[in-house]
């Protein structure tokens, strides 16, 4: 860019921005997922776990976790010159859920990360997006020491509607996360198109 214009002499493109939330239980990999794909250094609001928080932060199944997100994670991906995706990772603990409404405002869709060792931890996020009619996808983060289950078994355990996508992923792997985000965008577009059609008929 030179003096607000592109090098080819074309006026600068004002990009369309999309917002996607990344939600799920405590220690499920939300911060890792945002960091795996963000083209900027992600904004993180992690703090060390303390003895004072031990009664409310259940670390069973994730005993190696020593930090927790206390506000949000933020990352950015430029998909095209005219299309930018912003990622907002929500805090996982119940005491921070009051922030979700503000983070969810204007969101195209959401990723609900799930850990098969603590599958019940993502019920709250699934319920949140269902109640607010925000399209979401469930990404099963395949931890190395976690049992693997078929996608349909996870769907049944979470009592998901048939149209909610469920995919296996690795929150550490950029390509895997990109596929998850593409899946969210596609699902959100189909959801919105179906919603419009039902309103006009």
UniProtKB/TrEMBL annotation:
InterPro entries: Gliding_Motility_GTPase, Gpn, P-loop_NTPase. The keyword GTP-binding applies. It holds the Pfam family ATP_bind_1. Keywords: GTP-binding, Hydrolase, Nucleotide-binding. Belongs to the GPN-loop GTPase family. This is ATP/GTP-binding protein. The lineage of its organism: Bacteria, Bacillati, Actinomycetota, Actinomycetes, Kitasatosporales.
